[in-house]
Amino acid sequence: MAAYPGQGFPGAGQAPGAAPAGPYSGAPYGGAPYGQPPPGGPYGGGAAPGGPYGQPGSGPYGGPQPGPYGGAAPGGNAPPGVDPEAFSWFQAVDADRSGYISVKELKQALVNSNWSTFNDETCLLMINMFDKTRSGRIDVYGFSALLRFIQQWKNLFQQYDRDQSGSISFNELQQAFSQMGYNLSPQFSQLLLARYAPRSSNPSIQLDRFIQICMQLQSTTDAFREKDTGLVGNVRLSYEDFLTMVVTRMM
Hints:
By secondary structure, the chain is an all-alpha fold. The chain has a domain at 76-250: EF-hand (Recoverin, domain 1, Orthogonal Bundle), CATH 1.10.238.10. The chain is 41% helix and 0% strand. It contains eight helices and no strands. Helix 2 (103-109) packs across helix 3 (120-130) and helix 3 (120-130) packs across helix 7. The longest helix has 21 residues, at 140-160. The model is unreliable at 1-74 (pLDDT under 50).
Protein backbone atom coordinates (compact mmCIF):
# COMPACT_ATOMS: atom_id res chain seq x y z
CA MET A 1 0.00 0.00 0.00
CA ALA A 2 1.53 3.30 -1.05
CA ALA A 3 0.88 6.74 0.31
CA TYR A 4 -1.22 9.12 -1.74
CA PRO A 5 0.88 12.20 -2.45
CA GLY A 6 -0.84 14.99 -4.30
CA GLN A 7 -4.34 13.70 -3.65
CA GLY A 8 -5.14 15.77 -0.59
CA PHE A 9 -4.99 12.89 1.87
CA PRO A 10 -2.21 12.71 4.43
CA GLY A 11 0.51 10.44 3.13
CA ALA A 12 4.00 9.80 4.39
CA GLY A 13 5.39 13.25 5.11
CA GLN A 14 2.45 15.06 3.51
CA ALA A 15 0.29 17.45 5.46
CA PRO A 16 -3.47 17.49 4.91
CA GLY A 17 -5.11 20.34 3.12
CA ALA A 18 -3.35 20.22 -0.24
CA ALA A 19 -5.57 20.56 -3.28
CA PRO A 20 -5.65 17.54 -5.58
CA ALA A 21 -3.54 17.59 -8.69
CA GLY A 22 -4.76 16.95 -12.21
CA PRO A 23 -8.20 16.83 -13.76
CA TYR A 24 -9.83 15.02 -10.85
CA SER A 25 -10.01 18.09 -8.64
CA GLY A 26 -13.52 18.64 -10.00
CA ALA A 27 -16.11 16.58 -11.91
CA PRO A 28 -16.75 13.71 -12.26
CA TYR A 29 -15.21 12.72 -8.93
CA GLY A 30 -15.78 15.72 -6.74
CA GLY A 31 -15.97 19.43 -6.27
CA ALA A 32 -14.26 21.09 -3.33
CA PRO A 33 -10.53 20.59 -2.79
CA TYR A 34 -9.55 17.70 -0.53
CA GLY A 35 -8.95 18.52 3.11
CA GLN A 36 -9.84 22.21 2.83
CA PRO A 37 -10.15 23.60 6.37
CA PRO A 38 -13.37 25.33 7.41
CA PRO A 39 -13.31 29.11 7.85
CA GLY A 40 -12.67 29.84 11.51
CA GLY A 41 -13.99 27.48 14.13
CA PRO A 42 -12.03 25.35 16.57
CA TYR A 43 -9.75 23.88 13.92
CA GLY A 44 -9.53 26.82 11.51
CA GLY A 45 -6.23 28.09 12.83
CA GLY A 46 -7.09 30.00 16.00
CA ALA A 47 -7.26 28.76 19.53
CA ALA A 48 -10.08 26.30 20.14
CA PRO A 49 -12.89 27.70 22.30
CA GLY A 50 -13.07 24.71 24.63
CA GLY A 51 -14.97 21.46 24.31
CA PRO A 52 -13.53 17.96 24.08
CA TYR A 53 -10.76 18.98 21.70
CA GLY A 54 -10.19 22.53 22.92
CA GLN A 55 -9.08 22.10 26.50
CA PRO A 56 -6.33 19.86 27.82
CA GLY A 57 -7.69 17.01 29.86
CA SER A 58 -11.32 17.47 28.78
CA GLY A 59 -12.96 14.95 26.51
CA PRO A 60 -11.80 12.10 24.33
CA TYR A 61 -8.40 13.37 23.22
CA GLY A 62 -7.46 15.62 26.12
CA GLY A 63 -6.53 13.22 28.88
CA PRO A 64 -3.55 10.87 29.14
CA GLN A 65 -3.92 7.84 26.90
CA PRO A 66 -2.06 4.56 26.69
CA GLY A 67 0.28 4.21 23.76
CA PRO A 68 2.11 6.95 21.88
CA TYR A 69 -0.20 9.83 22.81
CA GLY A 70 0.07 10.03 26.58
CA GLY A 71 1.70 8.83 29.76
CA ALA A 72 5.35 8.38 30.50
CA ALA A 73 7.75 7.00 27.93
CA PRO A 74 11.26 5.65 28.42
CA GLY A 75 14.17 7.84 27.52
CA GLY A 76 17.15 7.25 25.24
CA ASN A 77 19.06 8.83 22.40
CA ALA A 78 17.07 9.04 19.18
CA PRO A 79 18.76 7.99 15.92
CA PRO A 80 19.61 10.78 13.47
CA GLY A 81 16.51 12.13 11.73
CA VAL A 82 14.07 10.66 14.28
CA ASP A 83 12.07 12.87 16.62
CA PRO A 84 13.11 12.12 20.23
CA GLU A 85 9.49 11.80 21.36
CA ALA A 86 8.74 9.36 18.54
CA PHE A 87 11.83 7.37 19.51
CA SER A 88 10.68 7.21 23.14
CA TRP A 89 7.31 5.90 22.04
CA PHE A 90 8.94 3.40 19.73
CA GLN A 91 10.80 1.98 22.72
CA ALA A 92 7.55 1.81 24.70
CA VAL A 93 5.57 0.13 21.91
CA ASP A 94 8.32 -2.34 20.96
CA ALA A 95 7.29 -4.78 23.68
CA ASP A 96 9.53 -7.65 22.55
CA ARG A 97 12.56 -5.35 22.09
CA SER A 98 13.02 -6.63 18.54
CA GLY A 99 13.76 -3.21 17.08
CA TYR A 100 10.57 -3.41 15.02
CA ILE A 101 6.87 -2.72 15.56
CA SER A 102 4.42 -5.45 14.53
CA VAL A 103 0.70 -5.10 13.80
CA LYS A 104 -0.08 -6.58 17.21
CA GLU A 105 2.17 -4.12 19.01
CA LEU A 106 0.78 -1.18 17.07
CA LYS A 107 -2.79 -2.26 17.81
CA GLN A 108 -2.05 -2.36 21.53
CA ALA A 109 -0.62 1.17 21.42
CA LEU A 110 -3.34 3.10 19.56
CA VAL A 111 -6.74 4.02 20.97
CA ASN A 112 -9.84 5.84 19.74
CA SER A 113 -11.74 8.53 21.59
CA ASN A 114 -13.86 5.87 23.33
CA TRP A 115 -10.68 4.05 24.46
CA SER A 116 -11.21 1.17 22.06
CA THR A 117 -8.05 -0.09 20.39
CA PHE A 118 -7.52 0.43 16.68
CA ASN A 119 -8.91 -2.39 14.56
CA ASP A 120 -6.63 -4.96 12.92
CA GLU A 121 -7.41 -3.88 9.35
CA THR A 122 -6.40 -0.25 9.89
CA CYS A 123 -3.22 -1.24 11.72
CA LEU A 124 -2.27 -3.58 8.89
CA LEU A 125 -2.94 -0.92 6.24
CA MET A 126 -0.71 1.55 8.08
CA ILE A 127 2.06 -0.96 8.73
CA ASN A 128 2.10 -1.90 5.03
CA MET A 129 2.27 1.77 4.05
CA PHE A 130 5.48 2.36 6.01
CA ASP A 131 7.01 -1.12 5.75
CA LYS A 132 9.88 -0.57 3.32
CA THR A 133 11.14 -4.17 3.55
CA ARG A 134 7.78 -5.94 3.08
CA SER A 135 8.41 -7.82 6.33
CA GLY A 136 5.13 -6.95 8.03
CA ARG A 137 6.95 -4.75 10.56
CA ILE A 138 8.26 -1.18 10.72
CA ASP A 139 11.50 0.17 12.13
CA VAL A 140 11.93 3.34 14.14
CA TYR A 141 12.01 5.51 11.00
CA GLY A 142 8.79 4.02 9.71
CA PHE A 143 7.19 4.37 13.13
CA SER A 144 8.16 8.04 13.35
CA ALA A 145 6.58 8.66 9.93
CA LEU A 146 3.53 6.66 10.97
CA LEU A 147 2.98 8.83 14.05
CA ARG A 148 3.03 11.95 11.86
CA PHE A 149 0.60 10.26 9.48
CA ILE A 150 -1.83 9.40 12.30
CA GLN A 151 -1.63 12.92 13.71
CA GLN A 152 -2.53 14.35 10.31
CA TRP A 153 -5.55 12.06 10.07
CA LYS A 154 -6.48 12.92 13.65
CA ASN A 155 -6.45 16.61 12.75
CA LEU A 156 -8.76 15.96 9.79
CA PHE A 157 -11.01 13.77 11.92
CA GLN A 158 -11.38 16.52 14.51
CA GLN A 159 -12.07 19.03 11.76
CA TYR A 160 -14.95 16.95 10.40
CA ASP A 161 -16.30 16.07 13.87
CA ARG A 162 -18.50 19.17 13.85
CA ASP A 163 -20.26 18.49 17.15
CA GLN A 164 -16.98 17.49 18.85
CA SER A 165 -18.47 14.21 20.02
CA GLY A 166 -15.33 12.17 19.39
CA SER A 167 -16.89 10.26 16.47
CA ILE A 168 -18.12 10.94 12.93
CA SER A 169 -21.87 10.74 12.32
CA PHE A 170 -23.71 10.23 9.03
CA ASN A 171 -24.09 13.95 8.32
CA GLU A 172 -20.49 14.64 9.27
CA LEU A 173 -19.29 11.82 7.03
CA GLN A 174 -21.26 13.26 4.11
CA GLN A 175 -19.73 16.69 4.71
CA ALA A 176 -16.24 15.16 4.99
CA PHE A 177 -16.59 13.39 1.64
CA SER A 178 -17.82 16.60 0.03
CA GLN A 179 -14.91 18.66 1.38
CA MET A 180 -12.45 15.96 0.33
CA GLY A 181 -13.76 16.35 -3.21
CA TYR A 182 -15.89 13.22 -3.52
CA ASN A 183 -19.35 13.35 -5.07
CA LEU A 184 -20.93 10.42 -3.22
CA SER A 185 -24.58 9.72 -2.49
CA PRO A 186 -26.13 9.56 0.99
CA GLN A 187 -26.88 5.91 0.26
CA PHE A 188 -23.16 5.20 -0.07
CA SER A 189 -22.42 6.88 3.25
CA GLN A 190 -25.18 4.83 4.87
CA LEU A 191 -23.60 1.70 3.42
CA LEU A 192 -20.25 2.60 4.97
CA LEU A 193 -21.84 3.26 8.35
CA ALA A 194 -23.65 -0.07 8.20
CA ARG A 195 -20.34 -1.78 7.41
CA TYR A 196 -17.99 -0.02 9.82
CA ALA A 197 -20.01 1.61 12.63
CA PRO A 198 -21.15 -0.23 15.77
CA ARG A 199 -24.84 -1.10 15.74
CA SER A 200 -26.83 1.62 17.49
CA SER A 201 -29.74 3.99 16.97
CA ASN A 202 -27.27 6.70 15.96
CA PRO A 203 -24.28 4.97 14.29
CA SER A 204 -20.97 6.76 14.01
CA ILE A 205 -17.36 5.85 13.27
CA GLN A 206 -14.21 6.23 15.31
CA LEU A 207 -10.83 7.50 14.14
CA ASP A 208 -9.47 4.09 13.14
CA ARG A 209 -12.41 3.33 10.85
CA PHE A 210 -12.27 6.84 9.40
CA ILE A 211 -8.64 6.29 8.45
CA GLN A 212 -9.45 2.87 7.00
CA ILE A 213 -12.40 4.12 4.94
CA CYS A 214 -10.50 7.07 3.50
CA MET A 215 -7.41 5.04 2.65
CA GLN A 216 -9.44 2.34 0.92
CA LEU A 217 -11.62 4.89 -0.86
CA GLN A 218 -8.56 6.70 -2.19
CA SER A 219 -6.89 3.48 -3.29
CA THR A 220 -10.00 2.30 -5.12
CA THR A 221 -10.45 5.71 -6.73
CA ASP A 222 -6.87 5.61 -7.98
CA ALA A 223 -7.55 2.21 -9.56
CA PHE A 224 -10.70 3.55 -11.22
CA ARG A 225 -8.83 6.56 -12.59
CA GLU A 226 -6.34 4.28 -14.31
CA LYS A 227 -9.22 2.75 -16.29
CA ASP A 228 -11.16 5.97 -16.87
CA THR A 229 -8.82 7.34 -19.53
CA GLY A 230 -11.48 9.69 -20.89
CA LEU A 231 -12.20 11.22 -17.47
CA VAL A 232 -15.94 10.71 -17.86
CA GLY A 233 -16.70 8.95 -14.58
CA ASN A 234 -17.65 5.65 -16.23
CA VAL A 235 -15.62 2.63 -17.33
CA ARG A 236 -16.26 -0.76 -18.94
CA LEU A 237 -14.56 -3.56 -17.03
CA SER A 238 -14.33 -7.25 -17.63
CA TYR A 239 -14.86 -9.54 -14.66
CA GLU A 240 -11.14 -10.30 -14.46
CA ASP A 241 -10.21 -6.61 -14.72
CA PHE A 242 -12.52 -5.92 -11.79
CA LEU A 243 -11.00 -8.73 -9.72
CA THR A 244 -7.49 -7.58 -10.58
CA MET A 245 -8.30 -4.03 -9.55
CA VAL A 246 -9.69 -5.19 -6.19
CA VAL A 247 -7.00 -7.75 -5.42
CA THR A 248 -4.05 -5.45 -6.16
CA ARG A 249 -5.51 -2.89 -3.73
CA MET A 250 -5.76 -5.55 -1.03
CA MET A 251 -2.09 -6.51 -1.21
